[in-house]
Amino acid sequence: MTTIAAANHFTANIHGVNIHYELYNQRSNQPFIVLIHGFLSSTFSYRRLIPYLMNDFSVLALDLPPFGKSEKSIRFQYTYKNLATLVIELLARLQIRSCILVGHSMGGQISLNIAKQRPDLVQQMILLCSSGYLKRAQMPLLLSTYIPYFHLYVKRWLERQGVEKNLLNVIYDHSLIDEEMCKGYEQPFYDEQIFKALARLIRHREGDLSSEELKKIKTPSLLVWGEEDKVVPIHIGKRLHQDLPNSQFISFPKTGHLLPEEKPSHVYEQILRFIH
């Protein structure tokens, strides 16, 4: 394992891919809480929640490749199963034998895959506006990813969307959007390699877990939703709650998709209440 330390920031090479991760308040007597971000995001999305969590937990936050500061590999197969395996391997290398998973959006789906693969590893699970029931991309789009320079179409599409426009869509209270937030979510896209990696993610993503698979996951789970979520509407959360046999559901009014940014203290309080 190759580890490059700078303050509480590290890099681990797992299965040939460099994974960026951050450790906060690491103490042997405190349970580990593991933060997994969503699509087009990074550990940056948890920066407002982490200070609360540090009061009660050792905290591990990581950038799923190809996002954040992790490698934008053009060799890795970006299936949810493989991404979950990377997280499991990272936990093993850090000798974390039991943890509480927190997954936002796509990170919720990765968390569910981890719980499916290694139920012994996941003590409890908190899903924040988790993605759910998305099918694999249709065949015309899958075939398009093999076209040379398809990654440039991905780049142009993201540029047309724009970071600020995307934030306006995922945050209910637009007054929260400031220059720091825009720069934080824009930073990973300065690396041109990410667009090739995103093309591979479109090609490899196998789709979300089915209702049948979800019903087999017995991990105690808390589902937290924003009632104004435009990305993963609240009915998805309620359906996940029905399919996950050992789950609780709570929602916040006047709240959008980006829960860790919008309601960090409220999310922290619900996590504590659920765990204890």
UniProtKB/TrEMBL annotation:
InterPro entries given in the database record: AB_hydrolase_1 (IPR000073), AB_hydrolase_fold (IPR029058), Epox_hydrolase-like (IPR000639)
Name this polypeptide is given: Pimeloyl-ACP methyl ester carboxylesterase
One Pfam family this sequence matches: Abhydrolase_1
Domain called AB hydrolase-1: residue spans: 32-264
MF term (GO), any: catalytic activity
Organismal lineage: Bacteria, Bacillati, Bacillota, Bacilli, Bacillales
